[in-house]
Amino acid sequence: MKIKFIQLFIVCFVAGLSAQQKRTIGSVERLHADMDLFVPQSAEIEILAEGFEWSEGPVWVEPLNAVLFSDVPKNKIYKWDEKNGLTVFLDPSGFTGIAPREKKGSHNAMNRDESGSNGLTLDQNGQLVICMHGDRRVARLKDWERKSFTTVIGKYQDKYFNSPNDLVYAKNGDLYFTDPPYGLKKGDDDPWKELDFNGVFKLTSRGELSLIIDDLTRPNGVAISNDQKTLYVAISDPKNPRIMAYNIVHDGVENGRVFFDGNALAKKNKGSFDGLKVHPSGTLFSTGPGGVLIITPEGKHLGTIRTQERSSNCAFDNQFQYLYMTSDMYLTRIKL
Fold this sequence. Notes:
Blueprint: H1 2-21, E1 24-25, E2 27-30, E3 45-50, E4 55-61, E5 66-71, E6 76-81, E7 85-90, E8 117-122, E9 128-132, E10 137-143, E11 148-153, E12 155-156, E13 159-160, E14 167-169, E15 175-179, E16 199-203, E17 209-213, E18 219-224, E19 230-235, E20 242-249, E21 252-261, H2 263-268, E22 276-278, E23 284-288, E24 291-295, E25 301-306, E26 311-316, E27 322-327, E28 330-335
Antiparallel strand pairs: 1-3, 2-25, 3-28, 4-5, 5-6, 6-7, 8-9, 9-10, 10-11, 12-13, 14-15, 15-16, 16-17, 18-19, 19-20, 20-21, 22-23, 23-24, 24-25, 26-27, 27-28
């Protein structure tokens, strides 16, 4: 009996210690009962890692059983997994010096260098594809061991992009990506800005590049509906925060309309529309004012995962059991 008591005491002690080590943040706001279909009542926002300048662009990589994400100002991609915790995966990640820009350390409106990688995704071959702010290109990680890059696309009409920000592949292999000026030190007024617009581009599987949207002030996150018929673009302009939707057609997009208007939310919550992902149900998980908003395909706001900090992007694991979120200095997750 004494041995069993000691064993029970040790188990309880270790369990208590684990509970103490687990740190949580924020809360879940439920505006509609259907929110429970996505986030259970018992779910908490768990802090996995912290201390970043501005975490961004998470993507789940099944062969690594890990999530990769960017720290944009630090020019690094980190890896987090259950076994090893946090490790540096790629350094440098988005600025290698191949594109013209102001020198590191010069003033910028956000008081950050903003020269590293941003959005991350996997192509149809499972290779990591990176939005490189500093190099002003979209690149592929050619060699996972040697950490060497190859350019997917670097210019439009012989002009450098502003700073590719987020990207998504369609099922047919076409790549859509946004190109706001956030990676340029002075934004739209930067002397190195070569394009007079902030666009959304399409690169076909055959390598044909086209500008499909050129009238958005701050195109940011981008996603495609499960039926491949709708392109969603998050607009991070504080003067008019919203999510746009477009019909995907053979030569681009048409019928641009406001899918979700965030102006009212932005008046009461910090954060702006940034990254977004589409759930198998067709529901959008979008970072925005207040945290990560859950929005039905009809545009109904079911609730918000209130991350407490400004949230930049999110990603599901392959089984859609967890949502990983990058929120300013944190990497967090919540059980779905």
